[in-house]
Amino acid sequence: MESENLRLNVSLLRRRVPNLTSAAKAVGLRPATVSNLCTGKISVGKSEVRTLVALADLAGCSLDELIIRGEKIEMIETKIKTLDLFAPLAKGGTVGLVARKQMGQLVVLSELFYRLKSQGLTTILLMPEGEFPELQDVLENVEVKTYSIDETYEKIAALGVEKEIAFAADKSHVVSGEIYELQGRLQQIGIDTVTSFLLDLTGDVMDEDLPYGPLETLWQFDADLSARQCYPAVDPIRSTSSVLEGAHMDQNHFFIQQRAQKLLRRYRELRSLVNVNGEEKLPAAELQTFKRGERLEAYLTQPFYVAEEFTGQKGEAVTLHETLKDVQAILDGSYDKEDVDQLRFIGKI
C-alpha cells in the first residue's frame, strides 16, 4: 500500500459525515489523527487498517470508495513563501484557516484573493450573517458577493465547468452543513474547479479538534508569530496540506520542507531557553542552530500587496523555485553572516 499514490476521498467524507469530530470520537478515533489523514500529514499507506475501516463505516462506503488511487493533487502556487513551502494550496480542495482575531487571517485571505484574481480565478464570498466591518478589506478583492447557499450555487453554476473559482465562507455555514451540501451539488453537475476557503470570524475555531471537518489544506495561525509581527503568522510546523504527501510532490520540495521544519522545531525550543538565560548559555552547535532558525523565520515574513498603503513596502511575489533555493541556502549556512533584519519582509534573497 505504501508504494501506491493513495489519499483519502476527503470530499466524500465531508458529504457523508457532517460532524466528523463527534463521529470519530464515538468510534474511538482521535480527531487529530483523522485531520492528519485528510491533509496528508499521516499517509494513507502508513495508517492503521482499523482506522481506515472505521472511517469507511462512518461514511457508509467501501474502502475502495474511501481511498483514491493514482490521482495527483495539483497545487496552486500563491507565491507566498511560507504557504507554498509548508502547506500548499490544493487546487479544487478545501482549506481551513484556524486563527483567533487579530492574527492576520483576513489579510492573508484578502492577499490570496488579490493574487488568485490576477491569475484569472473568479473570487466569491458568501457573506456571513451579522455585521463584520473587518471584512471590508477582503471585499475589495471579491468579484461576486452572495447571501445564500442557493444564490452561491446559481452563480457558480452559471460560470460553468471551465472557470476556476476561489470561494470563501464563514464557519457558520459549515456548522449548518450548507457548505458540504453546496460542494455535493456542484460535483453532481461536474464542477470541481472551486477552491474553498473556510474561516471563523469569531476566533473560536482555535479551541476545536476538527473545526471544519475534513480538509485538504490546514493553515494554523500562530499567536507568538502574530505577537512578534512576523507576518504572515501561519505556523510552518502545524500547518499542512495533502499536496505534501510524498507521492504528490517534488522530492526536492519535500526534502527541503522537512529540513526546514526540523530546524524551526529546534529553534523554537532554543528560543524559550534564550528568553530565560540569554544566547551566551547556548553551546556553540546549538547557537548555530538558533541563529539559522532565526534567519529562516525572518525570511518567511513577506510584504503583501494589499498592505502596501499601511506598511509603505511594495508587495512581493516569490516563486516556489526561488523559495526552495533561498531556504536551502539558509539551511546550508550560506547566510550565517547576514544580518537577521536584512532578511525580514523581503521577497527572494
UniProtKB/TrEMBL annotation:
Checking PROSITE patterns in the record gives: ATPASE_ALPHA_BETA
Ranges where the ATP synthase A/B type C-terminal domain occurs: 248-334
Pfam families assigned? ATP-synt_VA_C
Q: Where in the cell is it found?
A: Membrane
Keywords annotated in UniProt: ATP synthesis, ATP-binding, CF(1), Ion transport, Membrane, Nucleotide-binding, Translocase, Transport
Q: Where is it mostly found?
A: membrane
Q: Where would one find coiled-coil regions in this protein?
A: none
Q: To which protein family does this belong?
A: Belongs to the ATPase alpha/beta chains family.
Protein known as: ATP synthase A/B type C-terminal domain-containing protein
Lineage, opening ranks: Bacteria, Bacillati, Bacillota, Bacilli, Bacillales
